[in-house]
């Protein structure tokens, strides 16, 4: 039988884009190309970058990198720390969520 299962584009909610800080492993271009090859049309990037995505400056850097290199839709997580609770509400509209 020739059955074809058609699905909408899928979402990967746990992606390590590794950018900035570990581009020798992965970056937004390579991870989103791989995602598309597997039927993923939106990735959610984890905040464990170097520097960690836990403040406005780093979050904005990651957003710029993703905007320039991503081949599919993306969202970016913000990492929680003991010290960044005061900026969470400021970045919440642009973040995929908060990782603790």
UniProtKB/TrEMBL annotation:
Superkingdom: Eukaryota
Q: Does the keyword Acetylation apply?
A: no
Which terms in the GO cellular component ontology are assigned? Answer: cytoplasm
According to its UniProt entry, one GO biological process term is: purine nucleobase catabolic process
Pfam families associated with the record: DHOase (PF12890)
> Where does the record place the Dihydroorotase catalytic domain?
6-77
Query: Which GO molecular function terms does the record list?
Result: allantoinase activity
Q: Does the keyword NADP apply?
A: no
Keywords (alphabetical) are: Pyrimidine biosynthesis
Name of the protein: Dihydroorotase catalytic domain-containing protein
* Naturally occurring in which organism (per UniProt): Lygus hesperus
């Amino acid at each position: 039988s020739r059955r074809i299962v058609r699905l909408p584009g899928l979402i990967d909610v746990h992606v390590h884009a590794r950018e900035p800080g570990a581009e020798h492993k992965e970056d937004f271009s390579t991870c989103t190309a791989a995602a598309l090859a597997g039927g993923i049309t939106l990735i959610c990037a984890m905040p464990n970058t170097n520097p960690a995505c836990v403040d406005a400056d780093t979050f904005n850097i990651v957003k710029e990198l993703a905007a320039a290199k991503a081949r599919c839709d993306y969202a970016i997580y913000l990492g929680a720390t003991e010290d960044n609770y005061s900026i969470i509400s400021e970045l919440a509209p642009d973040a995929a969520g908060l990782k603790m």
